Each structure stands twice: as C-alpha cells, then as structure tokens.
Amino acid sequence: QLQLVESGGGLVQPGGSLRLSCAVSGGSLDYYNIGWFRQAPGKQREGVSCISSSGSSTTYADSVKGRFTISRDNAMVNLHMNSLKPEDTAVYYCAAVHLTVATMCLPPDGMRHWGKGTLVTVSS
Predict the structure, then answer these.
(1) pLDDT one-digit tens code per residue, 22-69
(2) How would you class 41 by CB atoms within 10 Å of its CB: exposed for 0-12, middle for 13-18, buried for 19 or more?
C-alpha cells in the first residue's frame, strides 16, 4: 500500500519561504503522478501543483505560478514555496494516482492515495 507523509509546514511571515516534503513509501515514484493540494478553513480542497510519474511534466495553479516549484528526488516530492502570502495559509496534502489511471494528477476526488497533511500558516 502506497504511503505518503508530509513534513515542513509551519509559521512563516508574508514574503517568506518554506519547503514542504512528501516522503513516499510502498511504491516507486516512477509509477505515480504526485500532486500537492491544499485546503484552507471553510474552503474546498484545491490542486496546487503536480509532477508526472516520469518527472518530465509539471503543472501549477495560477495562484502559485512563479512562486512555487515542485521537484522530486528519489522517494521524495518537494514543494518549494517562495513569496508566501496570507492566502497561502492552509493544510497542504500530497496525493498520488497511478500512471495507468491518469497521465497527470486528477481533481481531489480522483486521487487515490493521500497523506495526512501539514499546516502552513502565513502571518505576521
């Protein structure tokens, strides 16, 4: 069973940076598209970024383009977040879907494996 564990969340001031990490075990990243999603209080979970199983394709939500970068290294998928804004405050989750199901990440309802999340708070 694929397992995902997020880390790296915390409190940061506006304009600051954080790096979130998603440790993947029980399966190879070569077979899974991995996405970062977030859910702010009172809002629906939304996609932030995705990296394909090959590592060659990435996507970003418009709200984070130019500020966030997704990368992968061995069994880790990282989300580098720069120029953070208060509206980036949310619980961040990583999720996976097998490459035989989709060529990239799906909306939250379509992702098959989830971590428990890590809280990011952007506040002065």
Answers:
(1) 999 999 999 999 999 999 999 999 999 999 999 999 999 999 999 999
(2) exposed
